[in-house]
Amino acid sequence: MTRRELDAADITDPALRVAYTHCRRLNARHGRTYFLATRLLPVERRSAVHALYGFARWADDIVDDLDRHRTPDERDRLLRRLESDLAHGLRTGAGTDTGAGTRDGAGTQNASGDQPVVRAVADTASRYDIEHTLFADFLASMRSDLHITDYPTYADLRAYMHGSAAVIGLQMLPVLGTVTSREEAAPHAADLGVAFQLTNFLRDVGEDLDRGRVYLPADLLAAHGVDRSLLEWSRRTGRADARIRGALVAAEDMTRKVYRAAEPGIAMLDPRTRPCIRTAFTLYGGILDAIAEQDYSVLHRRAVVSRGRRAATAAAGIVGISRARWSARASRRTSTAGVTALPRKGPVR
């Protein structure tokens, strides 16, 4: 499947093919929902999405998962190195090779140097004319995770999510294509990125707390009598609290409002890419449903969408793809018929 995707995207350079393949593996390993939805895209666009996701995943791993013993200063240096490599890649269309990193058993670069994700994402940005500032904003939010652990208000959280989530939707927009102007679709794409991340924040409250972070706005929590110490108590003891449940319900309501703001943008996309985004929209909304079904026990267990629901949603996406293809073929037939008929009918009056 990887070879087919690369061939369809006209990615012929051997080093780039290796880089894109690496990003696809990252997506398959870490982003089950994204990966499932991506498989519903036209084959020639999948590699670009893997590159964008792979870059975001790599930066996120530097912040949270790459060698847990690293200090914040060490992580900051790695992020700045990644930013420098990316800036070079965006200027030249390729990653840098400084020899500073070490290679793992798969032959890919670890902490720095000629990172496959940089090669792939720089190539994707060039092919689809993605604004470079979107990547800079993303990395700025990633760096803020190294020293900011709480958000006093929703406005503060939204400012962070511009870089960590909204820009992801904006990066995706040129790859997905639109039937309206890109400017008209952009606010909805940004909202969808935010909705997905708010869903992650709600699902991962316990895991984030273990890392010392609380993403839910402090003013929302305080309105229900909740603070960090109460969350930590519940996480530690495994006991529920009605105040925490009330705050989580409010956070769910807040998130669903963002989904509603994002949804009109799906109809603005290229018909061939709508099934992918509709599937991701439904699956991520399903996480909110799972949280509610588990009575908001996110401090004690992770809410997941069942395999059956995931399969049913994917099947609906496949039906959507078939309809889009049939519609496109019908449109082409109609257009061709119209062109050939005109000479026989004479001038159209």
UniProtKB/TrEMBL annotation:
<feature type="region of interest" description="Disordered">
    <location>
        <begin position="90"/>
        <end position="116"/>
    </location>
</feature>
<dbReference type="InterPro" id="IPR002060">
    <property type="entry name" value="Squ/phyt_synthse"/>
</dbReference>
<dbReference type="GO" id="GO:0051996">
    <property type="term" value="F:squalene synthase [NAD(P)H] activity"/>
</dbReference>
<keyword id="KW-0125">Carotenoid biosynthesis</keyword>
<dbReference type="InterPro" id="IPR033904">
    <property type="entry name" value="Trans_IPPS_HH"/>
</dbReference>
<dbReference type="GO" id="GO:0016117">
    <property type="term" value="P:carotenoid biosynthetic process"/>
</dbReference>
<protein>
    <submittedName>
        <fullName>Phytoene/squalene synthase family protein</fullName>
    </submittedName>
</protein>
<dbReference type="InterPro" id="IPR008949">
    <property type="entry name" value="Isoprenoid_synthase_dom_sf"/>
</dbReference>
<dbReference type="Pfam" id="PF00494">
    <property type="entry name" value="SQS_PSY"/>
</dbReference>
<dbReference type="InterPro" id="IPR019845">
    <property type="entry name" value="Squalene/phytoene_synthase_CS"/>
</dbReference>
<comment type="similarity">
    <text>Belongs to the phytoene/squalene synthase family.</text>
</comment>
<comment type="pathway">
    <text>Carotenoid biosynthesis; phytoene biosynthesis.</text>
</comment>
<keyword id="KW-0808">Transferase</keyword>
<dbReference type="GO" id="GO:0004311">
    <property type="term" value="F:geranylgeranyl diphosphate synthase activity"/>
</dbReference>
<dbReference type="InterPro" id="IPR044843">
    <property type="entry name" value="Trans_IPPS_bact-type"/>
</dbReference>
